[in-house]
Design goal:
The protein is α+β, with helices and mostly antiparallel strands. It has helices spanning about 45-60, 65-75, 80-85, and strands spanning about 10-15, 20-25, 30-35, 90-95, 105-110.
């Protein structure tokens, strides 16, 4: 990890296509402006983790289970009650948030 000090108005360049400008910093809060090509995806960390989590859940979900949940919803089934009657394979999704602001996502599959 590179740690550098910048003052308001100073910039950081990443390759030839990403420019980060320090807009304002005071009281422990820093505002930055990021200029990059449109094909560069830029997310706040918490949004990025939500996207990764949704992708992991989607990858581990099959069409049959989606169809069965959809049918339950159409029938007016209370899905919270159905959770207690879980199948033989459960997925536990845990998002760890440590005081150091490092976050990790774990998906544990349990076979009952």
């Amino acid at each position: 990890m590179l740690v550098i000090t910048r003052k308001n108005g100073q910039k950081i360049m990443i390759n030839d296509n990403i420019e980060i400008t320090i807009v304002e910093s005071k009281n422990g809060v820093c505002k930055v402006a990021i200029q990059a090509d449109k094909d560069v995806k830029i997310y706040r960390e918490e949004i990025y983790l939500q996207i990764k989590l949704a992708n992991m859940i989607g990858k581990n979900t099959n069409l049959t289970s989606v169809d069965s949940v959809s049918a339950m919803i159409k029938q007016g089934t209370d899905l919270n009650k159905q959770i207690d009657k879980s199948s033989s394979t459960e997925e536990e999704i845990i998002v760890d948030e440590k005081p150091t602001m490092n976050k990790s996502i774990r998906v544990n599959k349990k076979n009952s």
